[in-house]
Request: fold
Amino acid sequence: MHETFKQEAQAMQDQLVAWRRDFHAHPEIGFEEVRTGGIVAEYLQGLGLEVTTGVGKTGVTAIVEPDDLPADAPTVMLRFDMDALSIQEIPDVAYRSTQEGVMHACGHDGHTAMGMGAAALLVRHRDELNGRVKLVFQPAEEGLGGARAMVADGVLENPRPGAAFGIHLWNQLPLNQIVVQEGPLWAIAGIFNVTVHGKGGHGAEPHATIDATLIAAQILVSWQSIIARNVRPTDSAVITVGSFHSGSAANVVSEQATLYGTYRAFKDDVETLILTRMQEMAQQIAAAYGGSVEFTSRRGINATVNDEAGAAVMRDVARRLVDADQVVRIDPMMVGEDMSEFLDQVGGCFALVGAAPPDAPLPAPHHNPSFDFDESMLATGVALLAGSAYEYLARAAG
Reply:
């Protein structure tokens, strides 16, 4: 069956590219995937599936199953994210975004296309499945909580899957290299915001002020010592200040400054450590200069952790699709992914498929306004997704 999936996915390549490019030209940010979800729903209905829309606001689900399947047959879930980013695209390609300030800069257009392709293969071979496949097209992966919204709307119930599988194309990895590993793959991701309060005044009379800009700058620099001197060297963490705002004129000492950014870790205790130290240092530095701070933080995404059984399924399928040396493990990455919401509850595996053009310099990375990827990986992704669902059900059915 895996060779069949591989051949049939390759035969769909032109259609996969056409879908991907259409989605790329018409990107929609989180919880606004009305056009994208509509196209997905219409296609799934055309395959003869009963489709549910509006799950998690703009999500789409459907179930593929053989006729007369027993009620207690196993269920597996495949997940595909659909949202774009608020980024202005630079390259003037034929399929360039038509939406000003919005683009698919992370490959979710490809994920949606692969989901439609996997649906087609699974429907074609539905009578050979040993259970149900729940197809989940998810909105708002990019930090807006789309997975949580779908879970709140019951996506993991009626029927409840025994495992969830998904992939992310990655254009910094060699074409069609497949990363499958048990344990952590991607990190806890959260955001923080600090507002520094000082005392404004004339730039020529700094002695009469409390400089919020200076305080915020000292906090920013000091935070970097947390990673170097508080986190165990064998652990990993990141603190990134992505936004620093203070002041509005050259001759005015600012009375307020804000720092806004993200933190990453793999372990709960490391997350607690860095947030505790960030708040302590911010408060103490501000107090030393006569100011004060407000510190808030919020975890947005749990660590993406694959279980052993799910990884074993995807690894075995991957080795039937590409050369064995193309199925690899990597060091866990600090990227965040809300596929973790599903893996935390039902287990499974999330894999990466390389999409770097061969014999060429690495393309612009994910979340870059020049992002693109080699579309020849799409067929590999379809076969991996359909094959993982098939293989899981075969093993679960005994």
